[in-house]
Amino acid sequence: MSETPTSWPTPRKFAGAGPLRGTIRVPGDKSISHRTLMLGALAVGKTTIRGLLEGEDVLATAAAMRAMGAIIERSEDGVWSVRGVGVGGLLQPVQALDMGNSGTSTRLLMGLIASHGITATFIGDASLSGRPMGRVIEPLSEMGAEITASRPEIGGGTLPLMVRGSLPAVPITYRLPVASAQVKSAVLLAGLNTPGITTVIEPVPTRDHSERMLKGFGADLSVEEADGVRTIRIRGEAELTARDIEVPGDPSSAAFFIVAALTVPGSDLIIENVGLNPTRAGIVTVLRAMGGNIEPLNQREVGGEPVADLRVRHSALTGIEVDPALAPSMIDEFPVLFVAASVASGRTTTSGLEELRVKESDRLTAMATALQAIGARVTETEDGLLIDGTGGELLAGGGPITTHLDHRIAMSMAIAGLVSRDGVEVDDTRPIATSFPTFETMLSERAS
Ligand code: S3P
């Protein structure tokens, strides 16, 4: 989504139309897709990428890397190639980098630019322009970057902002004050072109795709774990070597179809090639604890990440108290978990979810309001939702639901439509294209 809307809101009603059956394959992982383009653009040689997510967020990263000198192409059969500039070789972009809706592109690229001798301006859509950037501005400034942001009173600054990189940057040891893979990755990526060793201390583990992939591209990176605290060290002025990458399917996208198959009676669906990195698989743990029948088949490794096909069958779900320690491993899956909880029996309690308030929208308020509007029994607390489920009965339905430029609100409420009597109208489906452009087609076809 760009700052100037190029199309009108596209409302749509989603309603139940029978069980989900057969086999589907969700698109590539968004987090991994961003990182392959970024590291490919910094490597020496030609990286090829199969299974790249062709969603707007990832395309924003591709455009930014092109604007800084990488040559990025897509073949007719969907294989991407990236010819990198080498660490230290990023060029000054001529125009502002338009990050659209993508927080990951913004924060990780701010890190990359922070240790290059270039200056870049970041702009984004209304949702992204309201999100806090202080969390990356703080460590990157410590490393020497000069960052000028709008509205410093909102979360330490928002877009539009300008980053003037520091050459050389200063290596730091940074203890993450918030469990955020984006902040961790921003510092590690800045560390790539910083002399000496940059250290990130992570008291609560978050998705580790950056660490895995940096190692895969040949960076000197070590991870030490003691009492649950991870210390990650990267040696700077690294040389990265191009490689061939296959991106596994996105568990965050699979989650919508997992919840759909669990809650729509008669469903028996196989979702192929789902990434099951333990730092991402919390949703499967929680849905299983609620009684969900999710069976991993054909477990294997794809692109250095654990992957399986998931067989998901309709199940009677029971509400549980979700352990807040699981939150980082399913941070993007709470909106759709709330939908599952709305039709489970008994109460589901969630807490420790303050971070959901600073995603593409305030996902606690957005989901509480949306679910209440379609007849679910939901109470919003400061840091979570309490949901008393229907025990398998359909929700009433209704709408239009306000999606607040948030793809995951739109898709979660589409799934809620499948378990409603009258269907659920979503006010705007356009944001879905940021992460899962084929969602609506796959949902109408149900299975191949
Ligand atoms: C992401 C990290 C998470 C997640 C986002 C993708 C990443 O954000 O919500 O969708 O690719 O590193 P935070 O780091 O803000 O938790």
From TrEMBL:
Entry's EC annotation: 2.5.1.19
Region named Disordered: 1-20
Q: Which InterPro entries match?
A: Enolpyruvate_Tfrase_dom (IPR001986), Enolpyruvate_Tfrase_sf (IPR036968), EPSP_synthase (IPR006264), EPSP_synthase_CS (IPR023193), RNA3'P_cycl/enolpyr_Trfase_a/b (IPR013792)
The record's active-site residues are: D332 (proton acceptor)
Molecular function terms from GO? 3-phosphoshikimate 1-carboxyvinyltransferase activity
**Which UniProt keyword terms apply here?**
Amino-acid biosynthesis, Aromatic amino acid biosynthesis, Cytoplasm, Transferase
Q: Which gene encodes it?
A: aroA
Pathway the protein acts in: Metabolic intermediate biosynthesis; chorismate biosynthesis; chorismate from D-erythrose 4-phosphate and phosphoenolpyruvate: step 6/7
Where does it primarily localize?
cytoplasm
The family note in this entry says: Belongs to the EPSP synthase family.
Q: What are the GO BP annotations of this UniProt entry?
A: amino acid biosynthetic process; aromatic amino acid family biosynthetic process; chorismate biosynthetic process
Q: Which PANTHER family match?
A: AROM/DEHYDROQUINATE SYNTHASE, PENTAFUNCTIONAL AROM POLYPEPTIDE
- Residue ranges of every copy of the Enolpyruvate transferase domain listed in the record: 17-442
Which amino acid positions bind 3-phosphoshikimate, per UniProt? K30, S31, R35, S180, Q182, D332, K359
Could you confirm whether the keyword Transferase appears in this record?
A: yes
Q: Which reaction does it catalyse?
A: 3-phosphoshikimate + phosphoenolpyruvate = 5-O-(1-carboxyvinyl)-3-phosphoshikimate + phosphate
Q: What does this protein do?
A: Catalyzes the transfer of the enolpyruvyl moiety of phosphoenolpyruvate (PEP) to the 5-hydroxyl of shikimate-3-phosphate (S3P) to produce enolpyruvyl shikimate-3-phosphate and inorganic phosphate.
GO cellular component entries? cytoplasm
| Cellular compartments annotated | Cytoplasm
| Name this protein carries in UniProt | 3-phosphoshikimate 1-carboxyvinyltransferase
- Enzyme class, spelled out: transferase
Record text on subunit structure and interactions: Monomer.
Q: Where does phosphoenolpyruvate bind?
A: K30, G103, R131, Q182, R363, R408
